[in-house]
């Protein structure tokens, strides 16, 4: 189904306004937090929660040391998976707490 012209124009106008205000990157960063479980899966989401993202660094709170170690080993793949889901490089590094 085609998107009505007014909806497409509104979406583009909002995108342009965010870009002018320098907020488009911040919106993309927040999308990582909002879509966390969808992107990483339920198993990881049950043991690790994103806290914040700033300047390409995603801070993640992990439930215990064994999961922290597991995610440390997976961090390259997780960064790739996150960026692929968003369609652009938003996360460059993970920090586990």
Describe this structure in words.
The chain is an alpha+beta fold. It has a single domain, classed as GMP Synthetase, Chain A, domain 3 (2-Layer Sandwich), CATH 3.30.300. 60% of the residues lie in helices and 18% in strands. Strands 1-2-3 form a 3-stranded mixed β-sheet. The longest helix is centred in the last third of the chain and has 22 residues, at 65-86. The termini are far apart. The model has no long low-confidence stretch (mean pLDDT 88).
Q: Strands of the biggest beta sheet: in what spatial order? A: 1-2-3
Q: Strand pairing plus helix content: what structural class?
A: alpha+beta
Portion of residues in helices? 55-70%
Extended strand count: 3
Number of helices: 5
Overall geometric form: elongated
Strand content: 15-25%
CATH C-level name: Alpha Beta
List the helices and strands and how they pair.
Layout: H1 5-20, H2 24-34, H3 36-40, H4 42-45, E1 48-54, E2 57-62, H5 65-86, E3 93-96
Parallel strand pairs: 2-3
Antiparallel strand pairs: 1-2
Short description:
The chain is of the alpha+beta class and 97 residues long. It is built from five helices and three strands. Strands 1-2-3 form a three-stranded mixed sheet.
Kindly list the characteristics that best describe this protein.
97 residues; alpha+beta; three-stranded mixed beta sheet; 60% helix; 18% strand; elongated
């Amino acid at each position: 189904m085609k998107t009505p012209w007014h909806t497409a124009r509104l979406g583009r106008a909002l995108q342009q306004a965010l870009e002018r205000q320098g907020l488009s990157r911040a919106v993309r960063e927040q999308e990582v937090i909002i879509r966390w479980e969808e992107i990483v899966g339920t198993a990881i989401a049950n043991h690790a929660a994103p806290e914040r993202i700033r300047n390409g660094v995603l801070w993640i709170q992990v439930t215990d040391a064994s999961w922290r170690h597991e995610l440390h080993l997976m961090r390259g793949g997780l960064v790739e998976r996150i960026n692929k889901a968003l369609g652009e490089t938003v996360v460059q590094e993970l920090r586990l707490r």
